Every structure is written in structure tokens, then in C-alpha cells.
Amino acid sequence: MSQQPSNKPGLTPQFCFNETALRDFLRLSRVAIDDSIIQNLNALMTPARAGFDPSSTAERHTQTSRTRPIDSEACQGFKDNILFQSWQTRSDVLAYCAGVAVNPEDPDLIAREAESAKDRERVVDERLDPYSGRFFPREARTESLANLIRNERGVEGIIRARTWGLVTERCGDGAGWQDALDTWRATRVDGRDRGTG
């Protein structure tokens, strides 16, 4: 049918500060589900029950298969088990890394502070040493991570709106993506509460 959503990586501050790994995780998760949403939805469609009709090729059909609705149970299963699961995993990773970005316990903070104290004491004329810019303080990793998370949340909102537009076109769900995701989250919480009670 479709690919399973990417598993949540081991969440550690090192994962978050490794911006390449964080971006790769988000990119691969988006490619697997959101970027291939049309293929995933097409996979949900039931093949013709009556078999091939040769007369169907006699005239041109201008409507594409995108307008054909998909079975509501198949759509709901896809949304519950694949789409929302993938979105939730990415939300969890972004929320965790946002927490790491505001946490002052940056593992390299002490080393960077000592290095920057030495660098501040240097007096360098950039005309004589054009490479002296390397001694100017860099943006803290936490600030860089916070900017990355802010950007990725914006990208996530755009991608979810696009994906949800295609899902509602094919599945007929009228709610907005945020409302649908919140409803799904609430049913998961309720299901866990009933299972443990």
C-alpha cells in the first residue's frame, strides 16, 4: 500500500545539534509520506470489480482519477495509521529539539565560552589578517537550533496544508488538517486511558 512512516530517531541533544541528521530525518519522513501522497492515495483505490471494458477506450475521459473518491474506511485507515502517525513523529522530534534549544545545558557551552573569552582578548586588524573573522564569536548552537526548528515548523505547516488538501480532495474530509490531527491525538489519548484503566 504505502510506506510506513519513519520511526522516531533516538532523541538526544546530540541528535538535535547535528542539524544534518535532523534535516535528513525530516526530509526522509516527508518524502515517504507527504511528497508521495498522490501515489499513496492511488494505492488505496479498489481496482475495477467488473474487469476491463474495451469500450472504455472508445472515448476520451477528461476527468482524472484524482476526482474519484476512495473508500472511506481505507482513507481513515491511511490517515490514522500512516499520515497522522508520521506527522506526530515529526512534531515530537521538533518539540523535543525546541526544548533542547531553550535548555541552557549545551554540552559544548563551557568550551565555547572559554574559547570566546580568549578570542575577545585578541586585537586583530582585518586589513592585515583577512582570516581574523574566524575569531569573532559565532552564533551559539542553541540559537542556530532554535532558528532551524522555527524554519522547519514553517515548512511543516506548508507541507501539511498541501498534503491535507489532496487528502480531502480524494477522501472527502472537510475538517482542516490541524483539527483532524488534534482529533486523532485525542482519540489516541482516550484509547490509551481506556486500555490502562
Main beta-sheet strand count, sense and barrel state: none
> N- to C-terminal separation?
34 Å
Radius of gyration: 24 Å
| Parts with pLDDT < 50 across at least 5 consecutive residues | 1-5
Helix content: 55-70%
Mean pLDDT: 79
Give the strand content: under 5%
- Secondary-structure element sequence? HHHHHHH
Overall shape: it is elongated
Number of helices: 7
Label the structural class: mainly alpha
How many β strands by DSSP? 0
What does this molecule look like?
There is one protein chain. By secondary structure, the chain is an all-alpha fold. It is 61% helix and 0% strand. It is built from seven helices and no strands. It has helices spanning 13-17, 19-32, 37-42, 72-102, 109-121, 141-171, 177-196. The radius of gyration is 24 Å and the shape is elongated. It starts with 12 loop residues before the first helix and ends with a helix.
Short description:
With about 200 residues, the protein is an all-alpha fold.
Keywords:
197 residues; mainly alpha; 7 helices
Topology readout:
Layout: H1 13-17, H2 19-32, H3 37-42, H4 72-102, H5 109-121, H6 141-171, H7 177-196
